[in-house]
Amino acid sequence: MNVLLAGPNIYDPNRLGGIITVANTTLALFPGMEYFARSGEKGKGKVAALREFYSIVLKFRERVARGDIDVLHINSALERSAMLRDSIFMRIASKHNIPVVLHLHGGKFFTYKPDFATNLLMRQMLTSADQIIVLGKAEKEILTGKYGMKMVHILQNALDFSQVPAKATKLQRTPLCFIYLGRIDDYKGLEDILYAMKGLKKKNIPFRYKLCGNGPLTENYTEKCRNELGDCFEFGGVVRGDKKWQALNESDVFLLPSLYEGLPMSLLEAMAVGCLCITTAVGSIPEVVHHRENGLIVPKQDPEALQSLMEIICNNPSEFSEMAEKGKLAVEKRFNGQVFKESLRKIYQEVIKPPH
User: Fold this and answer.
1) Sign of dihedral through CA atoms 49, 51, 52, 58?
2) Is the Cα torsion angle 298, 303, 305, 308 positive or negative in sign?
3) C-alpha–C-alpha distance, residues 53 and 61, integer Å
4) How confident is the model over 122-175, as pLDDT tens digits?
5) Which residues of 117-136 are buried (b: 16+ CB within 10 A; e: fewer)?
6) From CA 305, how far away is CA 193, in angstroms rounded?
7) How far is it, in rounded angstroms, from Cα 253 to Cα 296?
8) C-alpha angle with apex 290: 288 to 295, nearest 5 degrees?
9) Edge-to-edge, what's the strand order for the sheet holding 100-104?
10) Domain residue spans in the chain?
């Protein structure tokens, strides 16, 4: 079976995100699988980016025209730009009678109602897929109930536990280290984090805030953090591999108060090294984090609630050690690479059309 896996440019050092992590995990689990980067390098101007994308589309058309691909597995999200882009690749594959597995990693329109034009685009994309993969029950219910999709599979993200380091001591250092790792963008709730950090500083509660990642708000947000938090703030930039694991392992509490998500890889990675996780009940997160059992849930867009919870943790960190350990055990049990591999293999086998 020859599967072409398509997704973001995993070769671009400036790109960061959960989809890249999932793509790399999939490639590691399926040695020899071919990968097609359906996006170019970041940081280019609009004209240069459009030219590069046109070149990528032509390369994709040439690749599928060879006639040796059995399945296109494309990683995407219910975001307008992603749907506009990835629908093109899906249409090209369909014209060559290549079945398409659409792997959706969350997106804004699992949470927010699309406008008329976006709704048409979404329906066109969904109906052109032969099989659809989502990250949790809530997303499946939306696609089957609201959009009438039939072939929808739940496949939760997996970790390569051979890469996960041994857990360092957590919730015992002074001051505690809070970490955010991921895309630096509005929907991640980063302003709520800064509000909470400013509240801790005003009350003279010692802490460290480590920010790792990149995105459209990097320069503006890091400058505000430096001005407001001073030496309590550290910007780590883009971290990968051992540096990513080191950043997580040197931290105590992982923060992710997002407005919407799929099933964030950074959350699973933080839980895997024993960080106490504070997040919001969006996307498939409630299927993983159970409030006050293996992590903490705060209402989205409620910085006061986030600050209050962070204060409690800073004042009584040892009371949360067992909760963090339960989070670690939950991830180890449920997000195993072999389960992911076998489930994905079955989806590939199901999607292959019989010869005419």
Assistant:
1) positive
2) positive
3) 12
4) 999 999 999 999 999 999 999 999 999 999 999 999 998 888 999 889 999 899
5) ebeebbeebbeebbbbbbbb
6) 11
7) 10
8) 90
9) 34-37, 3-7, 71-76, 100-104, 131-134, 152-154
10) 3-158+336-351, 176-334
Give me the amino acid identity at 184.
Answer: I
Q: Do the domains 3-158+336-351 and 176-334 sit in the same CATH topology, yes or no?
A: yes
**In sequence order, what DSSP letters do the residues of 303-318 get, joined into one string?**
HHHHHHHHHHHHH-GG
Residue with tokens 């940081």: 43
pLDDT in tens, 19-33: 999 999 999 999 999
pTM, to two decimals: 0.89
Give the start-end residues of each E strand in the chain. 3-7, 34-37, 71-76, 100-104, 131-134, 152-154, 176-183, 207-214, 233-237, 253-256, 276-279, 296-297
CATH number of 176-334: 3.40.50.2000
* Partner residues linked to 100 by β-bridges: 72
Beta bridge partners of 177: 208
Token pair recorded at residue 95: 């014209």
CA distance 167 to 156: 23
Q: What is the CA radius of gyration of the chain?
A: 21
Question: What residues form DSSP beta bridges with 254?
Answer: 179, 277
Q: Two tokens at 244?
A: 């990513």
Peptide bond into 175 cis (omega under 30): yes
Integer angstrom CA distances of residue 45 from 50, 120, 156: 9, 29, 35
Q: How far apart are CA 79 and CA 243, in angstroms?
A: 30
Residue found by looking up tokens 């020899």 in the block: 32
Q: Which superfamily does 3-158+336-351 belong to?
A: Glycogen Phosphorylase B; (3.40.50.2000)
